[in-house]
Amino acid sequence: MDIVERINLNQDVRGIDVLLTQPGHIQDEKVPYLGRELPLGLAYLASYLESQGLSAEIFDMNIYEGSFELLKKILKETKPLVVGVSAFTVDIIRAGDIARAVKEFDKNITTVIGGIHATALPEQTMLEFEYFDYLIYGRGELSLASLVKNLKSGKNPRVLEGLVYRSDGNVIKNPPQRNILPLDELPYPARSRLNLKKYAPHIQKCFTLPNTGLISSLGCPYRCVYCSIHIVHPDIYSRNPENVVKELKYCVDNFGISDFRFFDDCLTLNRARMVKLCELIIKEGLKIHWNGVSRVDRVDYQLLKLMKKAGCHQLGYGIEVGSERGLKIINKKTTLKQAQDAIYFTKKAGLETSASFIFGFPGETIGDMRKTIDFAKKLSPDIALFYIVKAYPATALYENLKKENAPVHTRWDQYLVQAPPVTGTGISGEILVGLLREAYRSFYFRPRYILQRIKRMLEHPKREFKVSLLGMKMVAAYFRNK
Ligand code: B12
Ligand code: SF4
Q1: Is 205 part of any domain?
Q2: CA distance 293 to 316
Q3: Which domain holds residue 161?
Q4: Which atom of ligand 1 is nearest to the CA of 202?
Q5: Residues 437-445: what's their mean pLDDT?
Q6: Secondary structure letter of residue 158 according to DSSP
Q7: How many domains would you assign to the chain?
Q8: pTM higher than 0.85, yes or no?
Q9: To pair with 228 at 20 to 30 A between CA atoms, which of 89, 97, 286, 458?
């Protein structure tokens, strides 16, 4: 039950320590429904704060209409000591708006920003968004709990690791939090503080509802030039398969959830761990469905078959480009042959395949991008997603642009991967958007693809009907704006 439900039930929620929130996602007109997935970062923060004897509630502005009005009502009812806001890059401007609304309501409430954007650009974020009192970078559990404890006991919070604050007009960044709590030592994310009925991933990303996100590991040792996950998770943090299975069972027993989506950056990074996890799921007789994303060089047929047996219904891969040259440019450290094998064996193992492709890397020509479209068609995954590259802060792409003194602007709300480019790639935005349309049209309206879909429809009529309908809507939306 989240804070809105609790207030509606007239529960006493006055004087909480921390209200955690995130802005509503931008629903881009070209993508009718991004999906609403659990804000697991906020849920981990809430459960850890509670384990430290602090009270925390979550108000996810992504699942409520008119959420600024609601925010005021919640602030009035809860009178929190601290409001903590989480933001991806594309959300940061709206996160700043939340902090302003909080301060306008009561300037004595302490506002804190965290999440991947704040972690990538700590000083800049504090300079750009004046209504945040503090910024916590990296994993936030320990630093946030310490901050709240210090604020409550009147101790100086400015000594804390992982904290950024203002002093005499300057922004001061303290050293990073040295203590990274092992994921197995954290309490499960506080799903009981969320309105679980309101979450529904994009139909492509689940098998049935209700569904929940879950983490079995975080971090990735690779350094693809467009990815910044290492900034929040600089190492690989893995849970014991036993503990993961316990959480799966906990969700089945307590919330009636049997559909899971792993938020791991690369689910099969550690093959032995994945094998153990699958064996345990099978041994426990858990009747569940689950999916996740991996890399094409981190799977093999035996593993995929075992995953299928353990309930995996879909695996996603970032294939990204269709030429060996392109793969080098983006530092993917995979080959086209590996991509072909991975898609082939994933299908053969009976799993649905999803693959993403990105256009507009610096140095790419229109010819390279056409090769990407051709390669996508050759692979023919069950779902193909085409994006336009965005140089997110802390990625190699972003750092290179800065080195070259290329314009790196801060129109952060334009950093959706479906939107036109925001940095100069040498190829105009119009051409890139045109290529995206060409990609969707030529991928989805092929006889081979239509047959592929019909075959799946015979296997899972109900789900496939919904997936196809939504897929068609999505593709149609691309052409409406032509
Ligand atoms: C699930 C997910 C989604 C869900 C949304 C989940 C949600 N919050 O509502 C969906 C599918 C909708 C989604 C959409 C998008 N996503 Co996404 N997503 C993820 C994913 C896979 C998992 C997030 C997660 O739960 N992580 C685990 C938790 C524990 O970590 P965390 O959230 O970072 O939180 C910790 C710390 O950051 C910190 N922290 C976080 N918030 C706060 C707040 C405070 C106050 C404090 C103190 C600390 C703190 O403490 C937390 C606990 O340790 C990540 C990859 C990843 N591994 O994180 C990508 C990721 C976050 N997404 C990404 C992107 C690019 C997008 C899109 C922009 C793609 C697009 N379509 O254009 C959209 C944007 C949607 C929007 N906001 O409008 C990028 C973000 C890059 C960036 N700089 O912004 C990531 C990192 C993927 C990647 N490898 O590049 N996403
Ligand atoms: S493999 Fe995936 S998670 Fe790892 S660096 Fe590349 S894009 Fe990021």
Answers
A1: yes
A2: 4
A3: 3-173
A4: 11
A5: 92
A6: G
A7: 2
A8: yes
A9: 97
